[in-house]
Specification:
Length: about 120
């Protein structure tokens, strides 16, 4: 019998997301159609802590995103370091899988063909 057990578990890639990144997230159980936008206040391999403005004067609030729930597909997450590239993961990722999609370029969004 072994005292140490090796197991594979999901973790956040700390090279991809870091403190200070802008982040939009929506949990599948939230009743409102829109998610919440804020910034990453803290990130570990197991959890992202997001700070956002709650709409009440001079008040900020936080919500936590556990890695287990992201791996299970309960969250839609978009984040950016500089707003030039926006990354997406979760239930509505274009690939249809719970993995990182190719970054969305700002030029893809503001293209002349779209009349923007």
């Amino acid at each position: 019998m072994s005292l140490i057990k090796n197991e594979t578990r999901p973790v956040f890639d700390l090279n991809e997301i870091e403190k200070g990144n802008l982040l939009y997230a929506r949990h599948s159980s939230w009743q409102e159609a829109e998610g919440k936008a804020g910034f990453v206040a803290d990130v570990t391999e197991q959890e992202i802590l997001v700070q956002y403005i709650s709409g009440i004067r001079n008040v900020t609030n936080h919500f936590r995103i556990p890695v287990r729930e992201v791996a299970e597909g309960a969250w839609l997450i978009r984040w950016s370091k500089d707003m030039a590239e926006i990354y997406e993961a979760g239930v509505a990722a274009p690939s249809g899988k719970d993995q990182l999609a190719a970054p969305l370029k700002r030029s893809d969004v503001d293209s002349p063909e779209r009349g923007l």
